[in-house]
């Protein structure tokens, strides 16, 4: 953590690239850990990969929305120490962007302004027929296959499902941010999900920092690896750089 604090103190061009692990301390389960959604799924239920796919949305929308409401919507979740630490870094002019694979909106809730959501957001929904928007609160209280109040069409979340392409504009902005930064902190992600994990190949900066509870395929390429809690690591490092 002391080394990370030194890295942060010596640069004004940092990007954070994170995944589900940053939100587990807010009570949101991740996907691939021992307690993740993929592991905890019941043997007789369809696999989560299918329930999170475009095919499921089209072929079995009731199953899709049941899983979406029960497993992916967490309106009670609040930002944790890691989220607030990143917001403080941005406010101090030391963080250029947050690139996230998460759909929970906790970075914005903590105060981060430039958040690039690779997989969209569960806080946004739209009618597939007329485009009318709805928020998370509306989706939480909906039942069955949610119908648009305006036209009756299906309302789907603005999230990228399996079999769907990432938003090219968000990807381009993420690549630009990574190309322009001096330090990139990668946290709370296994770096096994592509194409998002492939963004690291665009990094040309000085320091690649990996903060994750488990090892990743990129550990041997990093200048600093910390296997610990993101909240503790980022919170302590930022406290050292930006004392209250």
UniProtKB/TrEMBL annotation:
It is found in: Cytoplasm. Its EC number is 2.3.1.286. Zn(2+) binds at residues 127, 130, 148, 151. Belongs to the sirtuin family. Class U subfamily. It catalyses: N(6)-acetyl-L-lysyl-[protein] + NAD(+) + H2O = 2''-O-acetyl-ADP-D-ribose + nicotinamide + L-lysyl-[protein]. Its main location: cytoplasm. One of its GO terms (biological process) is regulation of DNA-templated transcription. GO terms for molecular function: histone deacetylase activity, NAD-dependent; NAD+ binding; sequence-specific DNA binding; zinc ion binding. One of its GO terms (cellular component) is cytoplasm. Binds 1 zinc ion per subunit. This is NAD-dependent protein deacetylase. Its cofactor is Zn(2+). It holds the Pfam family SIR2. Residues 1-244 form the Deacetylase sirtuin-type domain. CDD domains: SIR2-fam. PANTHER family: NAD-DEPENDENT PROTEIN DEACYLASE, NAD-DEPENDENT PROTEIN DEACYLASE SIRTUIN-5, MITOCHONDRIAL-RELATED. Keywords: Cytoplasm, Metal-binding, NAD, Transferase, Zinc. The active site is at residue 119. Residues 127-152 form the GATA-type domain. NAD-dependent protein deacetylase which modulates the activities of several enzymes which are inactive in their acetylated form. It comes from the Bacteria. Nicotinamide binds at residues 31, 103-104. NAD(+) binds at residues 20, 24, 31-32, 101, 103-104, 119, 189-190, 212.
